[in-house]
Amino acid sequence: MPQLRESGNDGASQGPQEDLEQDGFARIFGIETEYGVSVTGADKPCDAATVAMAMFRPVVTRSRSTNTYLPNGARLYLDVGSHPEYATAEARDPHTALAQDLAGEQVMRQLALDAQQRLRPAYGEGATVHLFKNNVDSAGHSFGCHENYLVRRFVSLRDVERELLPFLITRQVFSGAGRLSGRGLVISQRADYLDESISSATTRARPMVNTRDEPHADPERYRRLHVIIGDSNRSQYAGLMKLATTHLVLCVIEQAARLGVESGFECCALQDPSSANRAISRDVRCGGTPLKLADPGGFTRARAEYGATGPAAAGGSSTDGGSATVDALGMQRYYAAVVARFLERYGAQVHEAMPRLDIDMVMHEWARLLDCLAAGDFAALDNQVDWIAKQTLFEALRRRHPAAAEARFAQLDLDYHDVANGTVYDSLVRHGAMRTIISADEAREAMTRPPQDTRAALRGAFVAKALQRDVRFSCDWTRLTLGSSGQDAERAEAVMLDPFETQASEDYRRLMQQLEA
């Protein structure tokens, strides 16, 4: 396994903290989504860079940059490789983070359709812009959907590698977006493109978790867990379950680190995480592909202690002569069992820290997902899990058109992810064939309204006022600035280091007063 480098305070000398954010189970969530772009029906070639710049023309006109923040607190920018990217504002619960992510879809859709109208005079009236919320383009280039979780600094990167990675690798059975590959359908869009378990790289050698130490908060207290392994979900249900279950697993890991005790996940470490990730992705029957554990005996003992044993058909795991074999479903069952035991003791505190999250629902749905997958009842999940929804669509296409060419399946795969001119996913929603959690009204509201229980509320109000007054400003996740340079007499700034803080500081009030002047 790679050697991990810790930076900042590792928690060894940290004393008790008085505030609930540090001692409790509150969390900040964020989702960064890169989009792919292309054009069909044009009279002459129109590459992705041309489309992306056309999309960002109004952004540059308004903000003088392709990197800006929006009145809802989110960041909008043009990433390397001509990928439009949207990073949600800070959210304190998965539901709010999901609403912010769907707001990003709508923001991007508006930009794409606006660009389409402006490109048509030069490229023909048939030019159609496609904006893909997926992770692999038709040429095989991969781009990301990154989840961000604020965790306490005393959680070590070694804990993340040993205790969290097996969960992240195996959760793809319900969070994978699915992709047509040379092998046919695979569960995860990203699995074949991830090279390492944990590292500071992002593009040269893609890790499952990025260790670049950018907490966007007080570095003595927090780190930002930057998860790269996940897919871009169209299914709202899959997106919510991905965030919620990961939060609960992190609660267990954090509390164990806080108390200096074992979490119960130490035995889950995998011998070769990358190979396991790819093997699970290719097992679309969830048929029991065994995972090689670093400590098989320890896993056997722990599984018995937490009551997570069972026949392979029920849990995808078995024992043989004291050694353990486990597949993705068995590993997920074990994680769920440890979380359930943890909630027996700390459930009230977890709920108090995040009252909008229905923990009982999450635990029930987690178990139901695994039961359905173990029983091969994929039909029960085809309106909730992206890769299963695609599998159902492909099977329906084969029944209607037995001789359909591979290109038609590939087109269906991409159309599912097209948020600008795609029809497949929206049709599923309209016909009740895809479960939704966030209403259209809630998503529209999130386009302009930031979460009111994080510092995003302050950033959003500042950006909205600066745009209204048409003044030069800049900001990032922790800093707001008026004025253009260090020599600007009117330059003023406010620092917002605490992502949980919603009360205006004196510096922030001065900024807003200056905008009102």
UniProtKB/TrEMBL annotation:
Domain of life, per lineage: Bacteria
InterPro entries: Pup_ligase/deamidase (IPR004347)
Residue span of region Disordered: 1-20
Keyword presence, Ligase: yes
Keyword Ligase: yes
Gene Ontology BP annotations: modification-dependent protein catabolic process; proteasomal protein catabolic process; protein pupylation
Pfam families: Pup_ligase
Keyword annotations from UniProtKB, A to Z: Ligase
MF (Gene Ontology): ATP binding; ligase activity
Name the UniProt record assigns to this protein: Pup--protein ligase
Naturally occurring in which organism (per UniProt): Bifidobacterium tibiigranuli
